[in-house]
């Protein structure tokens, strides 16, 4: 690996499994100091253990992305232990596949809370810390479902359309703070690709979305 993120602090929410875990390992392989945030702390600890076994540096923080205090405290804890935030990835998410009329209010609320409110709270935590330092990268994990509707993904599509809108708004609002905000669409094939798409292209400020 090239070490393109050597000694930069990267936080990944939902980092205990799936795409989030792959991102954590990929960042660590490139030299980043990784904060693995997940509501399932046992899974996050497994990812941290894997990173440390590969001579990387990482820590885990139990975090509910729908709770502002949890998110802010997690950000503080990472900065205290690893250093100033350089990269924040809003990856935590849930998805339910079912016809629209079977989408209950509970499923709708949970999906919007985790996928959209979680990204909103993560962005606020990151911007509060990055903007005064005039630099940083925020990545909001989006989806093809944030661009094209699907009758069996009503809540998920609504949440991901919202994530893209949030990303656009932030991209305009904080441009003078030199904090780059990206929305990354991940297809089903990407998690199987080593390096996870060259580690998101690789966080180039010119790729603002």
What does the model show?
The chain is an alpha/beta fold. The protein has one domain: NAD(P)-binding Rossmann-like Domain (Rossmann fold, 3-Layer(aba) Sandwich), CATH 3.40.50.720. The protein is 43% helix and 18% strand. The chain has 6 helices and 6 strands. Helix 3 runs parallel beside helix 4. The C terminus is likely disordered.
User: Which quaternary structure do these chains form?
Assistant: single chain
Largest sheet: 6 strands, parallel
Helix content: 40-55%
Instruction: Summarize model confidence as the mean pLDDT.
Output: 86
Counting structural domains, the number is 1
The stretches of 5 or more residues where confidence is low (pLDDT under 50) are 187-197, 201-209
Number of distinct helices: 6
- Strand fraction band? 15-25%
Instruction: State the fourth-level CATH superfamily.
Output: NAD(P)-binding Rossmann-like Domain
Apparent shape: globular
Structural class: alpha/beta
Number of strands: 6
Q: How far do the termini sit from each other?
A: 27 Å
Which fold name is given in CATH as the topology? Rossmann fold
Q: How are the strands ordered across the major sheet?
A: 3-2-1-4-5-6
Radius of gyration: 16 Å
């Amino acid at each position: 690996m090239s070490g393109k993120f050597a000694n930069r602090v990267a936080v990944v929410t939902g980092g205990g499994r799936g795409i989030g875990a792959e991102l954590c390992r990929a960042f660590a392989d490139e030299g980043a100091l990784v904060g693995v945030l997940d509501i399932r702390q046992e899974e996050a600890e497994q990812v941290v253990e894997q990173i440390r076994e590969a001579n990387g540096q990482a820590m885990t923080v139990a975090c509910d992305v729908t709770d502002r205090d949890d998110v802010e405290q997690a950000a503080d804890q990472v900065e205290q232990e690893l250093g100033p935030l350089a990269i924040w990835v809003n990856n935590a998410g849930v998805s339910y596949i079912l016809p629209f009329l079977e989408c209950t209010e509970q499923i709708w609320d949970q999906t919007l809370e985790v996928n959209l409110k979680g990204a909103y709270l993560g962005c606020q935590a990151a911007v509060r810390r990055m903007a005064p330092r005039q630099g940083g990268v925020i990545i909001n994990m989006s989806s093809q479902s944030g661009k094209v509707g699907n009758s069996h993904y009503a809540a998920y599509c609504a949440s991901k359309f919202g994530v893209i809108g949030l990303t656009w708004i932030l991209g305009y609002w904080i441009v003078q703070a030199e904090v780059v905000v990206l929305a990354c669409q991940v297809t089903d094939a990407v998690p199987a690709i080593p390096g996870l798409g060259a580690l998101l292209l690789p966080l180039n400020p010119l790729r603002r979305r």
